[in-house]
Design goal:
The chain is of the alpha+beta class. The strands form five sheets. Strands 8-10-7-11-9-12-13 form a seven-stranded mixed β-sheet. Strands 23-25-22-26-24-27-28 form a seven-stranded mixed β-sheet. It has a six-stranded mixed β-sheet with strand order 1-2-3-6-4-5.
Length: 736
């Protein structure tokens, strides 16, 4: 019997994919089987449009302990018996439908990925994209998402220490909600999402199973989101208090001799978690679906298998050793139930009350189609890149007026109204709080620390996906380097439009190439990640947004720098250039060009070799105690970087050289590879020695002090006015 197109649409399978299933099975799939294929061949689980490209990413490092894709997340060796596990994942479509629960369960899901590795979660970050904040629906989505993130993180007791938010009409109908979690593993106590021997039992622990989240992976994450679609039943509901207990119970269970495997029950629920465990174990699996504890009456095997109810984990347990496991989870007031058994063979066999419902080869279910494509650069992109930026008129407004307008812009103004809702000191490891370029956390029991950040400018990636993604890698690493941390690993969250279109295929191909080129240049691996496709609404794709999560290591956590200017009379130095001010080409893809002129055009550029050397200079200078402050020059350009360091430090700055006739390009251009530092004048010669050794330009541009921001003799803005614009701009922009 041929299945209807309506059914295929519901599970996001194409007609060709359905025919491929028939060909592989040699028969028509059973209804439950079809649901399994829909979930496991979904974009979210199967990565069918990206996995060929993802294989090209660098994934080797002396520090790498778990390779990408081998487990739930990558693991990096920090030394001293400590390893770090981290990953970023998206929950875009659920958050567009139900922002609070969509964001909350996104946080819960990424936390489970981390403690499934045996790691204790120690930090959360988030990377968010919305339409313009003066839009009523955008404010509804944003407030719901931020509320969901803060509620889940605060309740579960994991500090939310960093991230970023960006506003553009590109994301108006389809916001991006990416959550990152970092966890620590001590003494090599790492868990694996697999069984060891035939006969190992499969235990389900945690929450009962309901109907929430059915078709979440296939329905929401694997097709275009339309504003009018009513899909709230596909959004899960989270319980952070239950997950808090689940973390403790699962980590403790790994000390029991009978527990041999641990797996998160996330996207596609038991379907993905159990069948992927069987695949990793190279075994078959017998599932007793009627044994799954349920919170709703009359649930069918289809609903039980595809439910994405939250706060559930699967354990592989040696037969005869399950008693202590039951006792442990009972101690934590959690249910643990045997729902299956790993066995010799190649099939997953699903039984309901003793009756075989379906039997399907594991590898057939997990071997999703793989689509390969080569992108062709569209003419419209060439036209945008070739735009004559010199034709952009100099604003009639004064430089001081425009500086205040830029500081108050939604993409530049202080994010304090957001992160004030997060508890970022719980667990007492936070050394550098949100609000800077990267968060810094101490590693208890060691003098070392880690720095973490996320970064991506979708506007730059839109104008050049390859260079834009390389810039995202460079900026994510720069955020670490300005604190003094050496970048050691990356995770990626790929957020793109419809991968079936030529433009998005070009964007994907170029973006992965740029990511690979930049990561290889830095010599660091991409250890984990997530791909989210079909991010569009009303037929329009979002900006390509390959978010980069970065992790760096500080050998001495006390030797770190922050953004704020510190001391009157300190010298202000620009690393990475021998010119104080930017040229006209720096306006390409800039915030200034978009905000003031309503244009997104120009050709972005990046000198990776200079970028790496400049970051090395900054780290070496911080390690040598030469630098008082360090700040990435990026969104808004040099004038904004100077203003932010002054505002956060509560002290003014005087820049010696005036910006010149094209003061707008000079002040707000966004040329890459520049780092703003301040230091005692007596340390200038030592800094010069470091820059000379690495052939990095440095320019003394001014000094710290006073109560204003002065640029040459002609431009001066009271610091109190700059402070007011920056601290209140976002609040004003988002108020009703």
């Amino acid at each position: 019997m041929t299945v209807s197109q309506e059914t295929l649409d519901e599970i996001a399978l194409s007609r060709d994919e359905y025919e491929a299933i028939i060909d592989r099975l040699g028969r028509e799939p059973e209804p439950l089987e079809l649901g399994l294929f829909g979930a496991l061949w979904s974009e979210h689980c199967g990565y069918k449009h990206t996995k060929a490209l993802l294989r090209t990413l660098p994934a080797s490092s002396e520090r790498l302990l778990v390779a990408p894709g081998a487990e739930n997340a990558g693991v990096i060796d920090l030394g001293d018996g400590l390893s770090v596990c981290f990953k970023i994942e998206s929950h875009n479509h659920p958050s567009a439908v139900e922002p609070f629960e969509g964001a909350a369960t996104g946080v819960g899901g990424i936390i489970r990925d981390i403690f499934a590795m045996g790691a204790r979660p120690i930090a959360l970050l988030n990377s968010l994209r919305f339409g313009q904040p003066d839009d009523a629906r955008t404010r509804y989505l944003m407030n719901g998402v931020i509320g969901g993130i803060s509620s889940y993180g605060n309740c579960i007791g994991i500090p939310d220490v960093g991230g970023e938010i960006f506003f553009s009409d590109s994301y108006k109908g389809n916001p991006l909600v990416n959550a990152m979690c970092v966890g620590l593993i001590e003494d090599g106590k790492m868990a694996s999402a697999s069984a060891k021997e035939p006969g190992d039992l499969l235990l389900l622990v945690g929450a009962d199973t309901g109907r929430d989240g059915i078709h979440g992976a296939s329905g929401l994450a694997s097709r275009s989101f339309e504003e009018q679609a009513e899909m709230r039943s596909a959004v899960q509901v989270g319980n952070p208090f239950l997950e808090k207990v689940l973390i403790e119970a699962c980590i403790e269970s790994l000390d029991l001799p009978g527990v041999v495997g641990l797996q998160d029950c996330g996207a596609a629920g038991i379907t993905s978690a159990a069948i992927e465990m069987a695949e990793r174990s190279s075994m078959g699996l017998k599932l007793l679906i009627d044994k799954v504890p349920r919170r709703e009456q009359g649930m069918t095997p289809y609903e039980v298998m595809l439910s994405e109810s939250q706060e559930r984990m699967l354990l592989a347990v040696t037969p005869g050793e399950e008693g202590p496991v039951f006792d442990l989870f009972e101690k934590w007031d959690l249910d643990a139930t045997v729902i299956g058994e790993f066995e010799l063979g190649e099939n997953v066999r699903i039984f309901d009350k003793g009756e075989l419902v379906t039997s399907t080869p594991v590898i057939t279910l997990t071997d999703a189609p793989e689509y390969k494509f080569t992108g062709v650069k569209p003419q419209w992109l060439t036209d945008l890149q070739d735009a004559d930026l010199s034709a952009i008129p100099v604003p009639a407004e004064s430089p001081s007026t425009l500086l205040l307008k830029m500081l108050a812009a939604p993409n530049i103004a202080s994010r304090f109204p957001i992160y004030r809702q997060y508890d970022y000191h719980v667990q007492t490891n936070t050394v550098v709080e949100p609000g800077g370029d990267a968060a810094v956390l101490r590693l208890k029991g060691s003098k070392r620390g880690i720095a973490v950040s996320t970064d991506c400018n979708g506007r730059i990636c839109y104008l050049d996906p390859e260079i834009g993604t390389a810039i995202a890698v460079a900026e994510a690493c720069r955020n670490l380097s300005v604190t003094g941390a050496e970048p050691v690993a990356l995770t990626d969250g790929l957020n793109f439009g419809n991968p079936e279109t030529a433009d998005v295929q070009f964007q994907l191909t170029e973006s992965i190439a740029g990511m690979s080129r930049a990561a290889e240049a830095f010599g660091i691996p991409i250890v984990s990640g997530n791909a989210s496709m079909y991010n569009q609404s009303s037929g329009k794709d979002i900006y390509p947004t390959p978010i980069i999560g970065s992790l760096g290591l500080l050998e001495d956590v006390e030797k770190h720098a922050t953004v704020a200017f510190k001391t009157e009379g300190d010298a202000i130095v620009l690393l990475g250039t021998d010119s104080t001010w930017d040229g006209i080409d720096g306006l390409a893809a800039s915030e200034y060009l978009d905000l003031i002129h309503g244009k997104v055009e120009g050709q972005p550029a990046l000198d990776l070799d200079l970028e790496i050397r400049t970051q090395t200079v900054c780290r070496d200078a911080i390690a040598s105690d030469l630098i008082a402050s360090g700040h990435d020059v990026s969104d808004g350009g040099l004038a904004i970087a100077i203003a932010e360091s002054a505002i956060i430090g509560g002290i003014g700055a005087s820049i010696t050289e005036a910006p010149g006739e094209r003061w707008d390009a000079a002040m707000f251009g966004e040329t890459q590879s520049r780092i703003l530092v301040s230091l005692s004048p007596e340390n200038l010669s030592k800094l010069k020695d470091i820059t000379s050794a690495l052939n990095v330009p440095m320019t003394l541009i001014g000094s710290v002090g006073g109560d204003s921001l002065s640029f040459g003799d002609s431009i001066s803005t009271p610091l109190v006015d700059a402070d007011d614009a920056w601290k209140n701009g976002f609040t004003l922009a988002t108020s009703d």
